[in-house]
Specification:
Largest sheet: 5 strands, parallel
Strand content: 5-15%
Structural class: alpha/beta
Oligomer: single chain
Order of helices and strands: HHEHEHEHEHEHEHHHEHEHH
Number of helices: 13
Bound molecules: adenosine-5'-triphosphate, magnesium ion
Distance between the termini: 40 Å
Helix content: 40-55%
Radius of gyration: 24 Å
Number of domains: 2
Number of strands: 8
Shape: elongated
């Protein structure tokens, strides 16, 4: 099974869930606009900084050769002055995209040594007309002020619930799970402080729902609230609920069975007729669709 952080990873800047309209508008403004100011993306964990950084070169120049014209550096692995020399060597190579741009992504940039950060300032100036530097960091205050002053700075806070709900609904739909709107809101509010964590929780929810649906009839479960008078194996699966959400099959079984066992906040209904089909119809390919986020146009209108 593909991790949901990969399966539902944004494929273009428009798929990212932004913290607010202004940030969305500002970041989207790089797309095909011929602008390539250096940028710093900072903020808490799992809000899309590295994702945006990786998507940016293609957004700025659609024919960029990502293997040869983008230099991705993990600042926590390559920290010293040597990496600045390597960046300079890279920037001196010819680039063949229609703008002649090159891109240097420095992930976890505050991890570069002070000396390296200082040296980078000169390189940024030298290649100001043909290179875009993209930095990500969790700790903006540890990033040298000289780099900050040469970059546009964007704070990637966790998006508010109302911006995350479409992503949650998209995942639930792709995974053929059902949750009521209040439950979706509650779930999103609880886990949405990091989009990464939200997707991981949705993955857990999905695995548990599908496992429940495909459980063989005779398999007893220790945590199962099996009701003695339940006639079918399916209903046994319904009441067995060792995980964090109530997983039910969409069958004409007693709804009370679904509602009685509910240790936490959300009822997830697997929208499948039978346990076996639940496993079969999970379709990771067709679920790899892009999320219909607010478009740049709508952002512009809103802004
Ligand atoms: N704003 C977002 N919109 C859509 N998906 C997101 C967003 N943020 C994170 N994700 C999902 O979470 C995964 C991890 O995100 P990413 O690595 O970009 O976060 P990060 O901000 O760089 O985190 P860290 O600070 O820990 O490095 C992505 O692959 C994507 O699936
Ligand atoms: Mg990151």
């Amino acid at each position: 099974m593909v991790a949901f952080t990969t399966k539902y990873k944004p494929k273009r800047l428009a798929d990212v869930v932004y913290p607010d309209t202004q940030t969305e508008f500002d970041i989207m403004s790089y797309e095909n606009a011929g602008r390539f100011n250096n940028i710093i993306l900072y903020g808490t964990y799992g809000t899309g900084k590295t994702t945006i950084a990786r998507l940016m070169p293609k957004a700025v120049v659609d024919d960029v050769d990502e293997d040869n014209e983008v230099d991705f550096i993990n600042g926590s692995k390559v920290r010293g002055i040597q990496c600045i020399d390597d960046i300079e060597d890279f920037l001196q190579l010819t680039s063949w995209n229609k703008k002649g741009f090159k891109f240097v992504i420095i992930d976890e940039a505050e991890q570069l040594t002070k000396q390296a950060q200082f040296a980078l300032k000169g390189v940024m100036d030298r290649f100001i007309d043909d290179a875009m530097f993209i930095f990500t960091t969790n700790h903006i205050n540890d990033l040298y002020a000289g780099i900050q002053s040469r970059s546009e700075i964007y704070l990637l806070d966790p998006p508010p619930v109302e911006r995350l709900v479409p992503l949650v609904k998209h995942v639930l739909k792709c995974e053929k799970l059902k949750m009521s709107d209040p439950q979706i809101n509650q779930f999103t509010a609880k886990y949405g402080t990091s989009v990464r964590n939200l997707l991981m929780k949705l993955e857990t929810l999905t695995i548990n729902a599908k496992r429940k649906a495909s459980q063989p009839p005779s398999t007893p479960s220790l945590s199962c609230n099996t009701t003695p008078n339940q006639p079918t194996p399916t209903s046994a699966a319904i009441t067995s609920n060792p995980v964090s959400c109530n997983t039910t099959l969409n069958q004409p079984t007693p709804s009370s069975a679904a509602t009685t066992s509910n240790p936490v906040s959300c009822n997830t209904t697997l929208n499948q007729p039978t346990p076996s089909s639940a496993a079969i119809t999970s379709n990771p390919v067709s679920c790899n669709t892009t999320l219909n986020q607010q478009t740049p146009t709508s952002s512009k209108q809103a802004a």
